[in-house]
Amino acid sequence: xxxKALVGSKRYWTWIGVLLVIIGVGVVNYLHQFSYGLGxxxxxxxxxxxxxxxxxxxxxxxxASAVMLVIPYYLHHYxxxxxxxxxxxxxxxxxxxxxxxxxxxxxxxPMRVMNVALHPRPNSVMFWDMVVLLGYLALNVVIGWTTxxxxxxxxxxxxWVKPLILLSVPWAVSIHTVTAFLYAGLPARHLxxxxxxxxxxxxxxxxxxxxxLILLAFIVRRVSSFDAGREAIEAVAKIVAYAMSVxxxxxLLEFFTAFYSGVxxxxxxxxxxxxxxxxxxxxxxxxWVLAILAVVSLVLLVIPQLRNNxxxxxxxxxAVFISTWIDKGVGLVVGGFIPNPFETITTYSPTAPExxxxxxxxxxxxxxxxxxxxxxxxxxxxxxx
Amino acid sequence: xxxxxxxxxKLAGLSAVLSVGGIxxxxxxxxxxxxxxxxxxxxxSATGQIFGESKPPLTAKRWGMVxxxxxxxxxxxxxxxxxxxxxIHNIPxxxxxxxxxxxxxxxxxxxxxxxxxxxxxxxxxxxxxxxEALKEKPFLLLCNHxxxxxxxxxxxxxxxxxxxxxxxxxxxxxxxxGCRFCMAACPxxxxxxxxxxxxxxxxxxxxxxxxxxxxxxxxxxxxxxxLAQGLQPACVEKSNGGLIFGDLEDPNSxxxxxxxxxxxxxxxxxxxxxxxxxxxxGGIKNV
Lengths: 385, 287
What we know:
The complex is a heterodimer.
Chain A: H1 10-36, H2 51-64, H3 67-75, H4 85-106, H5 115-118, H6 125-152, H7 161-184, H8 197-223, H9 230-260, H10 264-275, H11 284-302, H12 304-307, H13 313-336, H14 352-383
Chain B: H1 5-20, H2 28-35, H3 38-51, E1 63-68, H4 75-88, E2 104-107, H5 109-112, E3 121-122, E4 125-126, H6 132-136, E5 139-142, H7 150-154, E6 160-162, E7 169-171, H8 181-185, E8 192-193, E9 217-218, H9 224-227, H10 234-237, E10 243-247, H11 254-261, E11 277-280
Parallel strand pairs in B: 1-11
Antiparallel strand pairs in B: 1-10, 2-5, 3-4, 6-7, 8-9
Helix pairs in contact in B: 1-3
């Protein structure tokens, strides 16, 4: 099936070329970081994780969100998702690829990455995160490729895929739960030390991932003859509406406990992020964009007349995506380090090389996604479904 | 690195003994850090005694430290301890905060014990009804060698671990992949990362101790290499009695005797990590 990615229009190859250039810029900057050290980034002794780990955290959620299509289609036989489910599975693959790359570029000694497999410590959540992420990648590659191959031959997928599909449902939940546990079990990071962290991660993921998926489906419809179908898109939009409502609710729960309890350290990071602390306001504009976009998206998604208006829907989905991205991809990881263990403030902002490496990883994900979608669409055009 | 005859014989003897156990002289550092089986360690120290130079290693069930702040009177009192550590362990000095590496350093009471000093405001003024002398008093900070360390729990490669024999939280810089999970887990900001090559920034290189590569985490290890040679940690040696080092599980040790008679506090005890560093704040004067 891979040959379908090797034939395409001029526009297709231009897009591939643009992505390769961005990846190239990222690689050059990564080589610089590799020789100079992670000091090339904005990270420091106090803020020891930054933009890379934040993107990783956000993208684990996007990967996990494929389950929002898999459950209705495979568990409830909701046939409307027949055409769109493969887009979800392939988005999961591209997201996990980016997750792995973001972890890799964040390592101080990347050549030793195999130590995680050679000397594993089962108590370490990071070890389990590696296990569940690689497992999830394998599951989606096998499931996506096999079902697409069967579709091409116009036969039913082999029976052995079904148990794997069922397994992929709890597995998707596990990847984001384990990723939340990276943070939620650390004793002195008050922003992260919250029992609702995993639930909040999942709700945000189930809003961000499907929102991105609909936007991708709109793009696919524009550049190819493949249409996921109006009914499918509106059903996914309904999922986004529920997930985003729950997500905002969960964020508000964090605020209640932190502020009503009056325990200063429980609210210190939230105060820094949303209102500024000790004269530091670096993240305040971002967090208020998050808040405003969350409200805008909820208004546009919860009212059915607005949600089913396909001119407004992309606006709502972009609002959901940016809002959830700021939540996990900007505020959450860095916010956990501010204030530091001495209750003082060391700020963080990514450097230019750090941003270019980040962009390179996103381009690598976009390339993976483009190739996979090209194959999927090629197959669907071939068999005329 | 030049060595004299004495050192050569010492090293050769040690190498011979260690190679019996299949361990090369390259691992001397680690061997001294008593990761050897106890039989081999006994032989190694016996060899030392034959040559009549090194003392028997200092051992304990759980090493701990008492910081008696009344003994630190001038800035030099602190600096001597810090300088000794910096030199012995090849700590780089980058001259800026972002890339900073430190094993032992000073900070204020307010930052050392932030939980005792919530940033509540009373009429716009921070609530700080504490002795004036305490407000400006520098505190010595280092790894707490917690009995229940969160940093070792999270390490995905066992590059940091609590040594069962004496409770020291160890660090293997050759195993570390530089993921920095331990830095996120440590409630005391005790860990540093080599954000860039530290070697050009080491003022005087101590050839007796390894320098570090780029991209690994490091921290205070209670001078395991000195304990193995029968020496007290470097900072303790330079502290004029301000730092007392001993076995927390031995009721007759000096640290236990002090802790049973004088009131001490530990950093963030509410987190349950059980720090092994205790602070005596009675009788302090302004520096």
